[in-house]
Protein: MFS transporter
Organism: Sphingomonas spermidinifaciens
Amino acid sequence: AAPAAKEFLGHPRGLFVLFFAEMWERFSYYGMRAILILFLTKHFLFGDEPAYAIYGAYTSMVYITPVLGGYLADRYLGARQAVLVGGFFIAAGHLMIALFEGPAGQQGLYLDGFYLGLASIIIGTGFLKANISVLVGQLYRRDDPRRDPAFSIFYMGINLGGWLGPIAVGILGETVGWSWGFGAAGVGMVAGLIVFIIFGHELRGAGEPPNRALLKAPVAAGLSREWIIYLGAVVGVGISWWLIRFQNAVGWALMTCFVITYAFIVWKAVAKLAREDRDRIFAALFLITLCPLFWALFEQAGSSLNLYTDRQVDRTILGWEVPASVFQSVNSIFIIILAPIFAWLWTFLNKRGLEPSAPFKFGIGLIVVGLGFLVLVAGAASTPGELTPVIFIFAVYLLHTMAELCFSPVGLSNMTRLSVASMTGLMMGAWFLATAGGNFIASLIAQATGGEGAGPERVLEVYSTIGWFSAAVGVGVLAVAPFVARLMHLDTLG
Ligand code: GLN
């Protein structure tokens, strides 16, 4: 038997390697995302609508490629190599954006270079994001009770990055110079890669390719499968580079993938599964169907809420006018504070047989995310003709974070829990696709807030509509939750 892995805080040391690598990756992602819409409108001088369209194409595509990246790692590359390759593409993408800043207001070649950077991040995230979570899982046996706590620790790493990234990148980008911000995001990802390379041996063989000989053997024109995948990634960068300027094409591609995946899951469930397993898949599909609505509201954060904070909010705190991008870190700070409290709350309720079912939590999530917008609308109305007090921005993000904790981790864990083993990857893929769809709809909503000559009233009108809509759907979900919960057959879930 292999000697026991060295531990730290009762967990394999590999967990902390993944923690810091993902922390730096999220530092770069959320840092860059915090200044992206500001950069598009203030540097490239796009109008709000086209800026939201580009932003939306990017944020949807970063959630589509992990489906493919997960598949390639499972079949050929292994998760470890996939994370390494992904980190490389991500770092290159951020640094490219920093290099192609160009003079303010100039598009042309600089804009092409900027799109190339975004495309590289899209492909890199495809290789990295799902697979680094897979590696966390591989450090533990299936029945190891430390598995769930390990994912909670890992989620802290994600949000540590999501907290520090917007502060560092935001302050540098908005006050020193855009390329300083994007450069900092790139340096962050390089730091993550260095952690991963130097301490990779702590993973003790997790995420090896399933068949190394197959991966390295030449198949066509002297190229191995491994090199064909890398070449495919470069082609993928080209395709994303082209797609990013055609938001409608991204939308259609997304919808087609989603419908096919959804139909395939229904067919598999009906044709291949016994009654209880089939019911559980239908319960999971119910959750997947609600997923786009949630992210469509939640993901206003980096786009329309970011610009609203920049233009309509009194951002002066203790005499310092805080750059709008810095507020993008508030969600992560609240997650770090609230995640342990929610975990405790669910366990507390569970012991008393009172824990709400997953669909019930989804209903709450939809109500609370809608409520967040209604609170902002009320807050803005309380100071007519003046800037909105900053407390309401904190209130939106607080409510949105509480909603996220009823939604995101619950959705992820139920995809694996409700699936049969042979369909887990497929269900995860569908969840990511639905998230991508949410990001896409989010950009349509953002575009509705910023048409030609639209003032702040338009933003608030849209926020009020989506707030009420989501809350109403949430109430409907609470009503049907008991029926969906019955489909989960938790008594026989083992
Ligand atoms: N904030 C989390 C992350 O970046 C979850 C994001 C999501 O699933 N949309 O990993």
The chain has a mean pLDDT of 93. The radius of gyration is 22 Å.
